[in-house]
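#onboarding

Welcome to the new folks! Below is a worked example of what a typical request in this channel looks like: someone posts a single protein sequence, and someone else replies with the predicted structure as tokens. Don't worry about understanding the tokens yet, we'll cover that in week two.

Example request:
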Amino acid sequence: MTLLPAPPVGGHALPLARDLARHGDRTALLTADGELSYRELAARVDETARRLGQERRLLLLPGANTMGALVIHLAALSAGHIVLLVPGDHHESVAALTAAYDPDVVVHPDDGDEWRIEERRPTSAHALHPDLALLLSTSGSTGSPKLVRLSHENLQANAESIATYLGIRDTDRAATTLPMHYCYGLSVIHSHLLRGAGLVLTDLSVADACFWDLFRTAGGTALAGVPYTFDLLDRVGFADMELPRLRYITQAGGRLAPERVVKYAALGRRRGWDLFVMYGQTEATARMAYLPPALAAEHPTAIGVPVPGGTFRLEPVEDASDGVGELVYTGPNVMLGYAHTPEDLALGRTVDALRTGDLARRTEDGLYEIVGRRSRFLKILGLRVDPQRIEALLERHGLNALCTGDDERVALAVVPTPGWDERRIRRQVVDECGLPARAVHVRLLPELPRLASGKPDYQAVRALSRSAAQPAADGEQTPDDLCALYARILDRPDVTPDSSFVSLGGDSLSYVEMSLHLEARLGRLPVNWHTTPIRELERPARIGRGGRSRRRSLETSVVLRAVAIVCVVGSHIRLFEIRGGAHLLLAVAGFNFARFLLSSDERAERTRRSLRSIARIAVPTMAWTAVALLISDDYDLSNLFLLHNALWPEVMGAGIHLWFVEALVYILLALTALLATPAVHRLERRFPYGLPVALAGLGLLTRYELVGLPARAQITDAITVFWLFALGWAAARSRTVPHRLLVTATALASVPGFFPGEPRRELFVMVGFCLLVWFPTLPSSRRVNQVAGLLAGSSLAIYLTHWQVFPLFDDVSEPLALIVSLLFGIGYAAAVNRLVRWVADLRTVRRHTAGTAAQPCHAPRPRPGRTMRRRRVSDLTLSHRTHGAGGRSGRSVVQRTGLRSTGES
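Example response:
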């Protein structure tokens, strides 16, 4: 007796699920445990449908390639219920979507094929549109509340279309090499059940020998795969396997490299099977285009022609070259629309045409080619960058890579090959795309991150890029990790484990940021870290509770810069009287001058570094002075051009406020010119300690007025304060205890009397100088490091701006005036740094744009001197032929990489 199927609730059902029994005793499912006929499958489906009841409800089903999950899925669709199909191996997604959509029925996997059905309510809590049949996550959006709403017509039409162009026969047997919750995997199931073909039902990977035993035993004729599947096929020696019944392999889920398309198409011709390259999206139920096997070898970059029943058109896109537009698809398989909340389940059709987001062109042969992803384009420094083209660029060099990013950086995950490291990969992208080095983040991985479907996990790549910019909380820092840190902070693409901070051109302005990051990474700041090669920087053994030490250290020069600037501002506000901070900063400036600006052995490189450092002091000063000229009467044009103390050193009015900056700029200019002469350069190389000591001695002549100079405002004039700078330089060059003792004794002897009647001021400078000479680092904590780093890194900006800021608040509250002055200066420093980087990056981009005729990593652009023509290509409909034996699909259950996250289509 024939068992009649249960009547669909509400009169709606999916025909391919309802009519299973019409295929009779043909084999429907083949598993490692045996076979199941269509008649037997139909009976199980009908029994489960009756258990689900007559009231139409929303059913959440964790997808799995098992008989139990498949039976429940078909039963719900045959009975008119709505299936919310979620990743069965991702418990977080199941929990998130259960909470977001409050399903009426939840299915729980149990051991074996008997799954537990939890009926949470007898009738639906939701208004459900009569056309709605299935809810799927968009590609990679596991756990996201954004779902694709598919109708019965969508599912049936797509299955019919696929079965037609693949020429599926009732004798075919396709392996379930893709997850059922993935639209591509589900389309394999639906299209073969529609034709009465068999399914080799398994969750084994193609990398598993047991899979191939089952496939051969079952007489498998079809495989489906994403690009990663073909990596696995190469590893297991697929080309040499004996698979006499294999008829076709299908490929979708992302772009397969053209050379691999050619390779597998040729392999198929030799071994007697066809390769079908396909294109689709969840929003189109699964498939929108396919490339006929006969054209694969000749047109490996094409996605082919629209599937039967579908059409393409190209809509113009701004900045795209002629013939390129956004690919728009129409057909009966286009989704009803998206759902974001349960209320959206009541909606009918809200989408008639699918804007794919892909940029495409139609070739002279009538085939469509994808040239980029509109939504994946990045815009960095005004430059449009196409991640897909960067992937193709690296692919040409034999590198397997994933590329994504945001408005600030390109993020790359790369599987390295011999001869390629982070530095070389970054340089390749920088040279090809005209991006600044700091905007290219490279992570080397043994495997690229993949979703459970095998598709690229771009969200994981972004997460890796973000984590690389953050200090590691635990674990050893590898040289590659530290190289990435140096490259980011110093904006250098050529960082290697043999590089050091000073060899890479680090200066006192980047030194604070670098030292804080390095101390956080390593747990302590090594002595002479700035001259130590990166490979020799090691993290000490962790101690204390939980294996971590809470002790931190901070470079003494950073502490002195932070303390000095607070004392300068507080004393000017008259909140307290701790003077001498500016003069101590001059000694620290000399100390850093020796460590950074004199680090290169090449005279030209030294000069270049010195001039750059001078510019980074003078330009922000002049910019702020220009603002101050407009808002106050403190300054005049002599201050704007840093000439006030040179012209009127004896005038002690408001114009003298900038004496420290003027003195520092004059000293640096004089020393740069002096050291640029070959003789003095050689002298400094030969006597690195003796030269600054001699210069300090010369400076003491002016400090004690022994050279007959005119009367001057001694404590603020560059000539009379130079000895402080020179002693700081000598302190940095001190390598022995006698060296340090001589410098210390000189300071202790010469500071007293320099500030007549101000012993506390003199004591402050002497104590600070002794700390600088004898203590490279001081004990600290993480919070203190953060605050001191901000203040030290912004000390110049705070000094410049506080004169105009604190008068606005000191009548209200002197502590408030201090806090606001410090915060304003920190903000001004951040703005200047951002502007400097932006200008440098813009120059890089402009140089590249001016010198490059073709931009391989950028979006297609019109040729220079030619107005881009916009033309609408409408209803580009192609005729179709039914291909009897075709197809290809190198596909397998993907091996886990350990990286689980969402990804892009």
